[in-house]
């Protein structure tokens, strides 16, 4: 990334919204849905087939925000998002929406009987 000082919460929100828009495009959505159907409920297959599609979409978008479109760029972007989402609920929500494309919802039991 050229200048980390330009990556503000506002920029992060714009990048995440761009990723969501790209993920919801007809082409990406179709590919992701096909990969999910092929993976079924097998989490290993989800990580093998679905996750790379989502990451590729993310890399295509983050390069517009001065990140490199490679492994290092996606790691740096994710680290910055994780740091920002602790202080910004909008960023946290947008990041959760992106993760929902490859991670199934987690049900946590609230009624624990001993």
UniProtKB/TrEMBL annotation:
Q: Name one GO biological process term.
A: post-embryonic development
Where does the record place it? Cytoplasm
* A Pfam short name: P_C10
Q: Name one GO cellular component term.
A: cytoplasm
InterPro entries to which the protein is assigned, alphabetical? P_C10 (IPR026317)
Family the entry assigns: Belongs to the UPF0456 family.
Show the PANTHER family listed in the entry: PROTEIN C10
What name is this protein filed under?
Answer: Protein C10
What is the species of this protein? Nezara viridula
């Amino acid at each position: 990334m050229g200048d980390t000082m330009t990556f503000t919460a506002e920029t992060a929100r714009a990048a995440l919204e761009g990723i969501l828009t790209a993920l919801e495009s007809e082409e990406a959505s179709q590919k992701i849905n096909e990969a999910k159907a092929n993976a079924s409920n097998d989490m290993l297959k989800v990580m093998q087939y679905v996750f790379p599609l989502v990451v590729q979409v993310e890399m295509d978008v983050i390069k517009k925000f001065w990140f490199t479109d490679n492994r290092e760029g996606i790691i740096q972007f994710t680290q910055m998002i994780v740091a920002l989402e602790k202080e910004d609920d909008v960023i946290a929500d947008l990041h959760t929406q992106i993760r929902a494309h490859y991670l199934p919802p987690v049900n946590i039991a609230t009624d624990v009987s001993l």
